[in-house]
Amino acid sequence: MSGLTPPPLKDDCFALPPGVDWTPVDEALDRLRAALHPVAAKETVPLFGASGRVLAEPIYARRANPPAPNAAVDGYGFAHKATGEGDVTLPLHPGRAAAGAPFAGMVPEGRALRILTGATLPEGVDTVVLEEDCAVDDSAIAFRGPIKPGANTRRAGEDFEVGQEVLPQGHHLRPPDLALLAAAGMADLPVFRRLRVAVLSTGDELTEPGDAPGPGGIYDANRPMLLSLLQAWGHEIIDLGAQPDDPNAIRAALDKGAEADAILTSGGASAGDEDHISALLTSEGHLTSWRIALKPGRPLALAMWRGTPVFGLPGNPVAAFVCTLIFARPALDLMSGAGWSTPLAVTVPAGFTKSKKPGRREFLRARLTPEGRAEVFPSEGSGRISGLSWADGLVELPDEAMEITLGTPVSYLPYAGFGLAPR
Fold first, then answer.
1. What is the pLDDT of residue 273?
2. Can you state the angle between helices 329-336 and 25-35, rounded to 10 degrees?
3. Cα gap 15→3, rounded to integer Å
4. Predicted confidence band at 15 (pLDDT cuts at 50, 70, 90)?
5. What is the pTM of this model?
């Protein structure tokens, strides 16, 4: 593994064409996808530490599974041509075959050998009868035919053959994948280095949870949420803390964040007097403010700081959460080498009513009822953080006007489809 690092992103990668103002969600996603590329280098890790990593190369089986024909049940093996219709009696051959302890000899035609699940089929055996279907004594077995040729056996390579691709490049490894790779004979795996993502909150009003807020102060809800999301997605996180509305403090935090592969900020990305994030990114970086036609969210600041991409999220936790799921997650996946990710969407009947206006894509906090209908949080207020916890997903409403009544088909995006564990 060479460890070569892909080239960095260009400073102007987020620039919009002249005249572009409001950007529909799908167009914004397409532009974001086109602007990015993988930035993580490759490394090799042991199989036992590879869960959650992203494959940097396709994996080809070094061994077939199963490696040899074997028994699928505990029973008795024999040559099928020695059987027929009606009752069959076969003398027992001495010995037995077990998983890890194969029978070394050949089983003569017309004889049966005791065989256990997983045991390699010895020469002369191509069919196995289940022990529960047999009458047995010390010298013979009897069962009722006919039995199909090859019954209760597994052929060599029926799962996968030597040299067959078992997992593609970009695959995000899960526990079942490690079982597959172990069976394929893999001890070490080529993976992308974990993407390093820094998180920064800004605002004089922010207080660390557990501390006493000052006048007009609020607790920083965004940072623990964003750090937890990134951890769930398998990224290496750098906590830049909550910085006051001080350009020098924010600059120092951004400089530290530039050691990462990407920076997520929340708050201070608009054009107000205390929006120092946008001011710094404009004066000392390369800032493009994307006005995206969605609710909640709308402004999304995309910038470069010292060669590191910055995703400037809204300060409102509900909007920050939605923008992270819809925009930051697929962007970070692409940068990590996992490829662009599209959230799982299922069509379900609405358990609510709404008259939606045209012009913006809307994402409503939602969960499924026991009957499989999507109910939405009673308030669409973007300050209602409790709705994020109440929900198990989002209902996505299209850009166009839509009249929703009980039972109208709507698109439901479960949190689990964004890589978040269900409750």
1. 45
2. 20
3. 30
4. low
5. 0.87
Task: Report the C-alpha gap between 43 and 236 in whole angstroms.
Answer: 15
Q: Which amino acid is at 400?
A: E
Most confident of 11-20, 262-271, 284-293, 392-401: 392-401
40: left (phi over 0), alpha (psi -120 to 50) or beta: beta
Encode the chain in three state secondary structure: CCCCCCCCCCCCCCCCCCCCCEECHHHHHHHHHHHCCCCCCEEEEEHHHCCCCEECCCEECCCCECCCCEECCCEEEECHHHCCCCEEEEEEEEEEEECCECCCCECCCCCEEEECCCCECCECCCEEEEHHHCEECCCEEEEECCCCCCCCEECCCCCECCCCEEECCCCECCHHHHHHHHHCCCCEEEEECCCEEEEEEECCCEECCCCCCCCCCEECCHHHHHHHHHHHCCCEEEEEEEECCCHHHHHHHHHHHCCCCEEEEECCCCCCCCCHHHHHHHHHCEEEEEEECEECCCEEEEEEECCEEEEEECCCHHHHHHHHHHHHHHHHHHHHCCCCCCCCCEEEEECCCEEECCCCEEEEEEEECCCCCEEECCCCCCCCCHHHHHCCEEEEECCCCEEECCCCEEEEEEHHHHCCCCC
pLDDT of 230 reads 97
Among 401, 405, 393, 395, residue whose Cα is nearest residue 357: 401
Question: What share of the chain in percent tops pLDDT 90?
Answer: 75
Q: Walk me through the domains of the chain, giving residue ranges and CATH numbers.
A: 46-51+56-65+158-192 (3.90.105), 70-154 (2.170.190.11), 196-336 (3.40.980.10), 346-418 (2.40.340.10)
Angle between helical axes of 247-257 and 276-284 (0-180°, round to 10): 60
pLDDT digits (tens, 9 = 90+) for 26-72: 998 998 999 899 999 999 999 999 999 999 999 999 999 999 999 99
State the chain's mean pLDDT as an integer.
92
Q: Is the pLDDT assigned to residue 274 strictly greater than 80?
A: no
Residue 158 in this model has a pLDDT that exceeds 60: yes
